[in-house]
Design goal:
The protein has nine helices and ten strands. It has helices at residues 71-78, 100-109, 125-135, 141-154, 170-183, 200-215, 227-233, 251-256, 261-271, and strands at 31-42, 45-56, 60-64, 86-91, 94-95, 110-113, 188-192, 220-223, 236-241, 244-249. It has a six-stranded mixed β-sheet with strand order 6-7-8-3-9-10, with helices on both faces. The radius of gyration is 18 Å and the shape is globular. Residues 4-28 have low confidence and may be disordered. Bound molecules: adenosine-5'-diphosphate and magnesium ion (MG). Magnesium ion (MG) binds next to helix 1.
Length: 273
Amino acid sequence: MTLFSKGAERTVDTFPAPRGDGETATEQAAALIQLRGVNKHFGPLHVLKDIDLDVAEGEVVVVIGPSGSGKSTLCRAINRLETVDSGTIELGGVPLAVEGKSLASHRADVGMVFQSFNLFAHMTVLENVTLGPIRVRKVPPAKARAQAMELLERVGVGQQAPKLPAQLSGGQQQRVAIARSLAMQPRVLLFDEPTSALDPEMVNEVLDVMTDLAQEGMTMVVVTHEMGFARKAADRVVFMADGAIVEQASPAEFFDNPRTSRAQDFLSKVLSH
Ligand SMILES: Nc1ncnc2c1ncn2[C@@H]1O[C@H](COP(=O)(O)OP(=O)(O)O)[C@@H](O)[C@H]1O
Ligand SMILES: [Mg+2]
């Protein structure tokens, strides 16, 4: 079963088409996300150093690296939750807006799934998923609810729709958070350590949903320590250290033959556990 290929009522037009056989996302020329010379400081701390990064439409980029290397800041900059000091970030060839309506529209196009779920505690699961579409996308409420139920079913939590987030397990809450992001019909989804706050037995139910999304052509940037997921689902691994992109390669290349000593060192630590 796949997330986007079930049922006649599926809103085909709103989701990316699956990749064709033999076609890989990296062969496509135009970058959906393009960063050039991006720098960011927090006071004296230089947290993003001359970042150049292209993410093609349909590509799945896994970002890994030691704690404090700037992975979250990178995601937050792409979603414009953080400003940058210099450089450019473009989505579909359009530079990020600084404020106003176009910023809101950019945020709606770039979904983000956080470690801590960030669901509204006082709203039901269904309300959490319909809020954005109704408020930001101006979808009529009845239609928003129907689409939300469809997405909740697809991530396996349809039964939980009337409940409050606190009544759900962490794995279920994170799947709701993914459904909430998908409900906005984003052009790209960013995940910042989406399984790090979960009990171990719930990690796979979330990774499975993400793997389905990846296989069905969603453009994704995923910060994670789940190396199995990176190997299986990534088109490309980006390794960051000290605010810079130190190395990037296909998962097979990166894991089997890391070129830099920073990457070798990092991998020997995470893979020995
Ligand atoms: N709002 C902030 N103010 C000051 N320093 C910050 C802030 N956010 C992150 N940092 C610092 O920036 C660096 C990069 O952080 P972060 O992007 O969260 O790294 P990672 O996600 O790779 O662990 C760290 O040294 C962190 O302490
Ligand atoms: Mg982080």
